[in-house]
Amino acid sequence: MPFNLLLAAAIFIGVANSMLLAQEAGHQLRQPDAIRLATFNVSLNRPEAGELIAELRQDEHPQIQKLIQIIQEVRPDVLLLNEFDFDEGEEALRLFVARLALPSGDRKGLDYRYYFLAPSNTGIDTGLDLDGDKKLGTPNDAYGFGAFPGQYGMAVLSRFPIERKQVRTFQKFLWQDMPGALWPTVPETGESYYSAEVKEAFRLSSKSHWDVPIQISEQHVIHLLAAHPTPPVFDGPEDRNGCRNHDEIRLWADYVSGNGGYLVDDQGRRGGLPTDRRFVIAGDYNADANDGDSREKAIQQLLNLEQIQDPQPTSLGGAEQSQLQGQANLKHRGDPALDTADFNDVNPGNLRVDYVLPSKNQRVVGAGVFWPKSDDPLFELVDVSDHRLVWVDVEVKETPSPTRKPADHQR
User: Fold this and answer.
1) pTM of the entire structure?
2) Could you list the residue range(s) of the whole structural domain that residue 200 is in?
3) CA dihedral 309, 315, 319, 321 (to 10 degrees)
């Protein structure tokens, strides 16, 4: 074979092998006309306010360093962080963004010039006894479970400009204002678990629900719909958290399907998202379609919606760990390759609870879960959280938006 053909063949094989290795690691190479959107529950929640800031100021922190390496490995263009403690001065997020911009090993830094951050219901005391333990001021008596305001918060990072004036938040939307809300009841009597006084104050979002429009190009805006519904456990036979989880998921289903006329955001604007808009629903939704403890059909409210497509991101590591860990995992009905969280092997086992769900008016060209197999050198990174980073690539053929000044990401 002529030398030039041998050289071309070698290059082709090398590129093919590189793509195969990237796919196995859960972050396949993207097409040049695609952007990558991701969600990652980073488990950067701390017992006390300010503790995360102190850790981010350290030059070397094992968990933070590994999280940065994972994000730089996958390289999302837009990233939702769950369980990232909120602080009013936004110092923790600014420190984290600065760390992401620095190279780690042979990985290039990531410049997230734009970000969005807002308060979370977690840790904000209601002054009421929400859990019925005859005590006030406990983490269970906050609008969302938390030891201090902002614990388990959220943040959005973006390489593209965020249309801040168009952002909608639903932090203060009351559960009772959702028609047909799934209120928990006392099994023995069928009566409402919550008193009228509690219902008058109860906010639906355990953290918040955000509609964050991102200007990908002059003609292309994607609404990132971010949330982190409460786990459907840690309650009693009334299933108060399971009911709330179900209705937190329902909020987005109504918002994008034309059934959200009742919704009023924190800015006083009424209604849902116009049905011709592009959107991506992202976050840790604490609900698996086949296994776990969520209410029946809770996440199906999104997965079965005609406006939404489910790319079903997979990993080789999820399937492998299901077999290696066994126990509850061996009884699951769902495909373990779809799992996104490594929970207790006795109960509930590994589950698919983290989602990136684009609207059907977009073309998906890639998807995956960062969960390498145990013989992959990258496997040592995944122990930093019980969740895995999930990503989806969507096609964007228009010219990207011009870069704006860094001040645009400030509140």
Assistant:
1) 0.91
2) 31-409
3) -130
